[in-house]
Specification:
By secondary structure, this protein is an all-alpha fold.
């Protein structure tokens, strides 16, 4: 509000013309603008105010705040780096565990197929063995019958030779069956080992992932705490900026040190001065 407009409105108020809500609205808007300008000015020039005694506390508080700001930012970066590493490690554990389990399951499926094939072979061996035993019993009965009937020795010897051949073949078949049984047992034992390994891998993976989740939670908590501290610090810094900006703009022409600190932004300070006058005018008209 300009002085001429203020004068006009002042006269008009004497004749009952008053717009108090509008004046209050303008005053609030201009007060916010002034505070933002003071904050901006303080941020721009605070490092030049070290030798201004009236601003000594604000200056050194800002120095401390800047140091704390830098420390907190570095700590957040460190915890964020740690958090990224934990996420990467957890992903790696999950990938490695998944691959190991998949490999073991593939081996187990292969062993199950092998057992199925060995079982069919075993059934074939058992069928052959039953057939041999049947032939062997038949030939023994025949040999006994030939002996009792007084058959030719040549016929008896021929039957005896067949019995020996069947017995020898049966022994070989018995060895083959023993080998088959051992292979099935070894495959079953390996399947049990695989199932144990899969269970252990899952348990170990859950444990590691649980530990990682705890570490992630702790890191996030640390980051959240420091970000809250940063927000509080930022608010404190803005208040100090505004206090410095307010003092410099009010004392620019009264204090040589203030003039030296704020002369580069004199145009902005003139606008701030105009805002203060306008706020004052609006207040007087309410």
């Amino acid at each position: 509000m300009t002085p001429s407009k203020y004068l006009f409105l002042r006269i008009a108020s004497r004749f009952g013309y008053s717009r108090k809500p509008l004046r209050l609205s303008h005053m609030a808007l201009e007060s916010n603008l002034l505070r933002e300008a003071e904050t901006f000015l303080g941020e721009a020039i605070w490092q030049k105010t070290e030798n201004i005694e009236a601003l000594s506390m604000e200056y050194w508080n800002l120095r401390k705040c800047m140091k704390d700001l830098d420390r907190l930012s570095k700590e957040i970066d460190q915890f964020q780096e740690k958090l990224d590493q934990i996420h990467e490690q957890r992903t790696e554990v999950w990938k490695n565990t998944t691959k190991s389990i998949q490999d073991l399951i593939a081996e187990r499926n292969q062993l199950l197929s092998q057992i199925d094939m060995l079982s069919r072979t075993r059934d074939q061996i058992n069928n052959r063995a039953r057939h041999m035993r049947r032939n062997y019993r038949r030939l023994r009965i025949k040999k006994n019958f030939l002996g009792k009937e007084g058959a030719k020795q040549e016929e008896i010897d021929k039957t005896t030779t067949l019995l020996i051949e069947i017995r020898n073949e049966f022994n070989l078949l018995k060895q083959e069956r023993q080998k088959n049984v051992q292979e099935i047992a070894a495959a079953n034992a390996r399947i049990k080992e695989i199932e144990t390994s899969v269970s252990e891998l899952k348990t170990s993976s859950r444990s590691k992932i649980s530990e990682s989740s705890q570490s992630i939670g702790d890191a996030n908590q640390q980051i959240s705490t420091r970000r809250a501290q940063l927000n509080s610090l930022d608010t404190q810094i803005r208040v100090l900026y505004a206090d410095i900006g307010s003092y410099i703009s009010l004392n620019l022409d009264k204090n040589p040190e203030c003039k030296n600190a704020g002369e580069e932004l004199k145009g902005m300070i003139d606008v701030m001065t105009a805002l203060r006058k306008s706020i004052k005018y609006n207040f007087e008209l309410t």
